[in-house]
């Protein structure tokens, strides 16, 4: 940046649009300032969340009628029946299966059926079983929304988007930005991913991670195993929630 441009930013109250470098500098500084403000706001958390929410990640391509679709639907229905809100990406495929299962539960206490979408030129609309929808312009803010909203994560079979979502949660648990948050990988494809990471990242003399990092995801083979893990975690959450309410009174 030229001395003249720098001076125009530092000393003048206004900047001419003709000063292209100064305008770029102001835009960059403003955008970073907005990010800093958003990052600061996302540090805020309620002392206790009033609803227990399970996010289910999975493919947008799996069609109704496929056995995996049916299993994800059954799993979400069981979770909703125990009072868990269900959060998905809000789209078709296994996201729809999860939202459909939550609606099918007809739980006595109304379960929140949530979809967090990202705006894409080729994606379908929000699936018809989502009761509360949010739309983001970027994957970055969408992923952060999942983090702010969820108490547990189940990863069903999926593609590149599901890999992105699940590995972000894995890293946040690794660096302890998330605590006591189940990350459950269901099915052989994810066990294969963890096996690959263990083999390639823990090579003796060229370690790229810690052995404990490979134990963060819980790999299971069936929906019933995932339900069992969530049921146990949900029970602990309920006990802590009741204790916190008693302490306030």
What does this entry look like structurally?
There is one protein chain. Strands 4-3-2-1-5-6-7 form a seven-stranded parallel beta sheet, with helices on both faces. Helices cover 50% and strands 12% of the residues. It is α/β, with parallel strands linked by helices and 249 residues long. The chain folds into two domains: 3-41, no CATH class; 53-247, Rossmann fold (3-Layer(aba) Sandwich), CATH 3.40.50.450.
Question: Could you provide a short overview of the structure?
Answer:
With 249 residues, this protein is an alpha/beta fold. It folds into two domains: 39 residues, no CATH class; 195 residues, Rossmann fold (3-Layer(aba) Sandwich).
- Written as H for each helix and E for each strand, in order along the chain, the element string is HHEHEHEEHEHEHEH
- How many β-strand runs? 7
Indicate the radius of gyration in whole angstroms: 22 Å
Level-1 CATH class name of the largest domain: Alpha Beta
Based on secondary structure, the structural category is alpha/beta
Q: What is the fold-level CATH name, i.e. the topology of the largest domain?
A: Rossmann fold
Uncertain spans = 1-11
Helix content: 40-55%
The total count of helices amounts to 8
Strand content: 5-15%
Global outline = globular
InterPro entries: LOG_fam, LOG_family_nucleotidases
Protein name: AMP nucleosidase
EC number: 3.2.2.4
GO molecular function: AMP nucleosidase activity
């Amino acid at each position: 940046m030229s001395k003249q441009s720098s001076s125009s930013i530092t000393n003048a109250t206004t900047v001419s649009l003709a000063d292209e470098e100064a305008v770029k500098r102001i835009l960059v500084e403003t955008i970073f300032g907005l990010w800093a403000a958003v990052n600061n706001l996302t540090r805020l958390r309620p002392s206790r969340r009033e609803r227990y929410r399970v996010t289910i990640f999975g493919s947008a391509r799996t069609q109704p009628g496929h056995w995996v679709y049916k299993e994800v639907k059954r799993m979400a229905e069981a979770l909703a029946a125990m009072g868990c809100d269900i959060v998905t990406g809000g789209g078709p495929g296994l996201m729809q299966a999860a939202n459909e299962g939550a609606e099918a539960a007809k739980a006595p206490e109304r379960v929140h059926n949530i979809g967090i979408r990202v705006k894409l030129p080729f994606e379908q609309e929000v699936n018809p079983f989502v009761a509360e929808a949010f739309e983001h312009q970027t994957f970055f803010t969408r992923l952060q929304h999942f983090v702010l909203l969820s108490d547990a994560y189940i990863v069903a079979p999926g593609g590149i988007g599901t890999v992105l979502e699940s590995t972000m949660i894995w890293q946040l648990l690794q660096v302890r930005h998330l605590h006591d948050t189940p990350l459950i990988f269901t099915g052989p494809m994810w066990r294969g991913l963890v096996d690959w990471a263990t083999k390639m990242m823990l090579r003796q003399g060229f370690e790229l991670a810690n052995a404990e990092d490979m134990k963060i995801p819980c790999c299971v083979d069936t929906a019933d195993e995932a339900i069992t893990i969530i049921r146990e975690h949900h029970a602990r959450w309920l006990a802590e929630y009741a204790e916190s309410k008693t302490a306030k009174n």
